[in-house]
Amino acid sequence: MKPLWGIDLGGTKIEGVILKSADNPEVLLRKRIPTEQAQGYAHIISRIKLLIEMMAEESGLSAEKIGIGTPGTVDPLSGLHKNSNTTCLNGNRFHEDLQKALNLPVVMANDANCFALAEARMGVVKQEMPEAKVVFGVIMGTGVGGGIVVNGKVLTGRQGISGEWGHNFLDESGGVAYTGRKGVVETILSGPALESFYYSLTQEKKSLKEIYQLYQLGKDEAAQKTMQRLTHFFGLGISVVINLLDPDAIVLGGGVGNIDLLYTEGVVSARQFVFNNRLDTRFFRPALGDSAGVFGAAILAE
After folding, report:
1. Is the pLDDT of residue 225 over 80?
2. How far apart are CA 33 and CA 40, in angstroms?
3. What separation in angstroms does the CA of 202 have from each of 191, 192, 206, 225?
């Protein structure tokens, strides 16, 4: 089997990896360079090309196909990139332009899809529940997103938006998202949204990590309310996903996903809202850490 080449495009860094194969994910080379996105669309493409050239030189290998995980996604009908917080990509034929620049086939997927794919094929689901057929990968950090993997393949959908539960309406108490929509999952369950909620109660700016530490001490009422808000609305929000997909496994990634309460009180909350008399869905912590995105991108190149 030929080595798999993957690229994870982030706002501040571009990371590349060469894996021996999907079945034997030995890392042959891993390298990062700054994205330098402030210099614009064409510059980002040139940086990706540079990274691949550097990887080829250092490894002595040549790529036949590149998998790439990106913020946002390609619209399947128009071919234009959309929904990216690296905004200079939006409205451009990023997939097409990158293939021309690299003179290679490029398989592209949203970064949350790459996360879900890696944890399903190489990570915690492979280790703990290898029989799983349907996996939902959750990203809860600065934003909220998700990816769906069915039988080891990413599900993208007709419009390229499969798994985007972060932009479903959840509750009027949420703020306004960057899309202009109010009360969506991202405006309630993201790290900044939870920090803003705590600030609204105390007029004190604290990180989510600090708020959780205060909750654990049990002496801060606002921290208690913030964590209760998280677990209640996590259960409500994820129950919609479970009712629609009925996944075997859900993997919780991102900074918010590190909060232990999600695996106890969050699951109890979900159980209340799921359309069943029990909840059999398994919830997992990711096993691959910051490797998941780039490993998932490499799997795309199978």
Report:
1. yes
2. 16
3. 17, 15, 10, 11
101-104 — which CB contacts under 8 Å span 24+ positions? 101/45, 101/46, 101/48, 101/49, 102/48, 102/49, 102/52, 102/66, 104/63, 104/64, 104/65, 104/66
Distance of alpha carbon 241 from alpha carbon 148, whole angstroms: 10
198 within a domain of the structure (yes/no): yes
What single-letter DSSP state applies at residue 24? S
Strand partners of residue 74:
81
Q: Token match 């290998």: residue?
A: 61
32-67: per-residue pLDDT in tens?
A: 999 999 999 999 999 999 999 999 999 999 999 999
Residues 42 and 162 in one domain: no
- The Cα diameter of the chain in Å comes to 60
DSSP H stretches of helix in 149-273: 186-189, 191-202, 208-217, 221-245, 265-273
Say whether both 142 and 237 belong to one domain: yes
Residues 6+ apart with CB under 8 A from 114: 6, 8, 67, 69, 147, 154, 292, 293, 294, 295, 296, 297, 299, 300
Interval 87-96 mean pLDDT: 95
Q: For position 155, what pLDDT does the model report?
A: 94
Which stretch of DSSP H or E encloses residue 108?
strand 106-110
The answer to the question of residue 86 being in a domain is yes
